[in-house]
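Hi D.,

Good news: the full-assembly prediction came through. Inputs first.
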Amino acid sequence: MIREVVRQLIDDAVQRAQEDHALPPVAVPEVTVERPASEAHGDYASSLALKMARAARLSPMAIAGAIATHMAPPPSIAAVDVAAPGFINIRLSPQWLAQQVDVVLEAGPAFASTDVGRGRRVQVEYVSANPTGPLHVGTARGAALGDSLARVLQQAGYEVEREYYVNDAGSRMDAFNASLYARYAEQFGVDIPIPEDGYPGEYLRDVAAAIAATEGRRLLDIPEGEALLELGRRGVEIILAGVRDDLERLNVRFDSWFHEQWLYDHGLVDRALAFLRERGYVVEREGAIWFTSSSLGEDKDNVLVRSNGLPTYFASDVAYHYDKLVRRSYDRAIDVWGADHQGHVPRMRAVVGALEADPSRLVILLYQLVNLVRQGRPIAMGKRTGSYITLREVLDEVGPDAIRFFLLGRSPDAMMDFDLDLAKAQSDVNPVYYVQYAYARIASIMRRAEGTAFASGDVSLLTHGAELALIRKMLALPEVVADAAFALAPHTLPYYAQELATAFHAFYKDCRVISDDLDLTRARLKLVAACQTMLATTLGLIGVRAPEHM
RNA sequence: GCCCCCGUAGCUCAGUGGAGAGAGCAGCGGACUUCUAAUCCGACGGCCAGGGGUUCGAAUCCCUUCGGGGGCGCCA
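Then the structure:
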């Protein structure tokens, strides 16, 4: 990555300047390089001299000058300038830029890769919606965020596992089972009320009907306890199949579906509780069993086992994270949760402490909730209230690409309105089409150029400003990937995608690719092919299609 | 009451200590005998919610006020 080359160059120059006594032997802050806002300031800039000024007791300009004169710039760098009040500005060589087209073509999608992950094992857990009903757009935000984060981390050299945690145990399931039982009975004209805290949504009618279709009324004739369990099991399967289909349509896939019930069946909950107990983090009080999180700096303790003997969701989550961090020992576990789970965060942090794991190994990424809006008015949502617009309906209405691009394109901290009318408008308000159109244009050029072999093209012919601007933008992709992986912030990708598309559209306007000049045609076809790879890679990270036609 | 997130152009939002604060959309003015005009170019548009502080330097960090959202269960 060229940014790293520049950074290293400055780092070396500072050391050399210190050896030459041009700079005093003070501690050097970490060298950072950024892309200046203004093109007049070159391709990269460093404010190192400004940061060093106080300790070195020299003016920033003097320091920057000393660094610049001790630099040994490689051919990739055309100019090193010092600018007030003390910036070091670095400009890339146009010839070198043009040559990068061959480098991109040679590397393919791997050009976008970096190795900041160094093969470390990271698990990303996301969606993990209760299997009590179909997904809605809110969970789709978690899906877009988690899936793209996983893709980015992979591109950045991590070994990534994507996991969906299925909450198929606990009191929510009891409510689900009873609700389904009522709907099943309804199929046969038997009136059983849906529990107060149950799931009155229409969708359970369909689930019940599907079970009734294969089982008839058999489940009404066996003991209720057995029927509840069997119905629940079948119901969860049906719901999960739907969830899987919806996610598949969204281009979201998982490596593993981890069932909460598995933790109970294999004694993991008991084992995790024993682990806490041995270390003195468990007390019994008021008939319940508590995790003494307050001894780990949290404001309160938390119940692990209720006074009625049933473990809480928290207990299995302790076991689940014991499994992630101790048994499966991921270097890092990233939980992607909706902001409505924020109350769960402090106690999970306390759990990591109790597990004697480095706190940085568990990262909890919260995303703010999504309001579904139609014609400017919010639509109330809730699985338990029954009023509900499913992700499937939105997928039918809007299409997966616009959904993903939109849901990923905002910082997880920003709450958002998902406006159905806006989202389905295939117009300028929808940047996903702008980016995809750039790809379709490329595909069109490549089709037209099918008979033209361009492997021998001479990229040094690429000297036009629009060509160089496009190359510059392409070279930024590995930086975007590295930064997104570092900050766990894949929402930068849609922005980058738009910038890359803009650079291409501008090039397309200014530079005719296929022309009478065969040499130039070949060179430009190389550039277009390289851009195609980078654009496809970017769209792939976002999780949307790269269409051949539009 | 306590805790978390947010407040930046008319609208939707980038910008996690650096150079007159950016993009898209809307509105305004231009560009198609051309590989897809779902495109391009230009101008307009800002007390970065208010107030204090830290710093050579603050939209960014700290304190505080106001406004919006979320959370404070032996639910998940």
